[in-house]
Design goal:
10 strands, five-stranded parallel beta sheet, 230 residues, three-stranded antiparallel beta sheet
Amino acid sequence: MDKKIIVAIDGFSSSGKSTMAKALARHTGYIYVDSGAMYRAVTLYGMRKGVVSKENGVDAEALCALLPEIDITFVKDAAGNQRTIMNGEDVEHEIRDLEVSELVSPVAEIHGVRQYLVEMQQGYGKERGIVMDGRDIGTTVFPDAEMKVFVEASAEIRAHRRLKEMLEEGNHATYEEVLHNIMERDRIDSTRKESPLRKAEDAITFYNNEVPIEEQMMVLIKIFNERVKG
């Protein structure tokens, strides 16, 4: 019987890592966890409580004090799509809004927030058999993951990709707004002191500018099978 492993897929915002991670989880029967959705949920909760806003920024101390109130789980809807549940409420649509996107990186910089969510994420992986995507999965959350992939794509392609997703979800924005948001998030994610976005030394780089999902899966499944057998 093949052993269960942990798959860590990291990369820049809208690089396609979530699509790849979901598809691989479906193929393998593994649990999929979207770590970015967890940071978005915390951001949304902070916005609702008035401690995270465009006008006043992020009150880190107040937000960290609220963390024990936040319960985050994932469920699948009738179509098999994963939904993010915060304190019993489906917030999948709301956390993808541009306003949340503009505030999530400053929230993700906060040590207390990262510590709280990393512990939660590590708990999901205790039994292995998990695919998780994010920005620090292969470096911080699961540095011992048997399979690590780092996904890259140009900012322009990522902006077009993200805008299409937002419009399909009913969230409105312009290409210029989305591109600016992506480039700013890249800067913050790559330069923050707490678990910056970087490629793990033993990760495989996947350049995902215009690669069809079928080709992506061929590569990922090949790597997965090698890691499981190895």
